[in-house]
């Protein structure tokens, strides 16, 4: 996962979602995850995933970097569905749920800086938990840069190329081993620094305010509409024969979003 790409989009992006307050985006993400948990029809789940993708395209989020991250859980969901799902329909629902939930979270991470995501969490968790999350965030970038340097150095010194997959894999494993040792040393140094400076818990983050209240309203209303549609099809058996309409609506949202995104 390219952590730097996620952070670059979250910090430097200038989309409608970036203008919304983190609390509103967290509320919208919670509603979307509620919809994912409630959906029990593969056509409805597919429609939600398509609609969410179209919404991301419409506001200008980098879908090429987002979609691969959202599809990672599909691999594990496929394994679970193959092993435990009683039928293909249930298996399809499991996979689509995993992808849609991941897409909702990825959308949040690409539009909200990491510290702002965890700022509300700090208010309800012990100080050491919130501080650990922030320090982990900082360390990820240091380790990502270190790993890139290690793999580059190993490949240059060993003269590796794409035609030598075995040797390349061995070099990558050696780089990971060196990164593990470096991470242990980094954690110890960070602990020593905080101890010497008299750390007693208090790495607080000030929550950002909304730049455009319309963005807050749009995000929450969109997520609430998705949840309402899912609950309607879940609680009304008579609508089960029309679930394909949700897929069609999602496809329309996707095409519309892509069209709007290209005009930006």
How many runs of DSSP E, i.e. beta strands? 0
Q: Over all CA atoms, what is the radius of gyration?
A: 22 Å
The protein's oligomeric status is single chain
Average pLDDT across residues?
A: 83
Q: What is the structural class?
A: mainly alpha
The percentage helix is over 70%
Shape: globular
How many angstroms does the end-to-end distance come to? 27 Å
Largest sheet entry: none
Strand content is under 5%
Task: Work out the helix count.
Answer: 11
Low-confidence stretches: none
Question: Could you explain how this protein is built, in words?
Answer:
The protein is mainly α. It has two domains: 3-118 and 208-263, no CATH class; 124-196, no CATH class. It is 80% helix and 0% strand. It has helices spanning 3-12, 16-19, 22-38, 42-59, 63-84, 88-111, 114-122, 127-158, 165-196, 213-235, 244-263. The radius of gyration is 22 Å and the shape is globular. The mean pLDDT is 83.
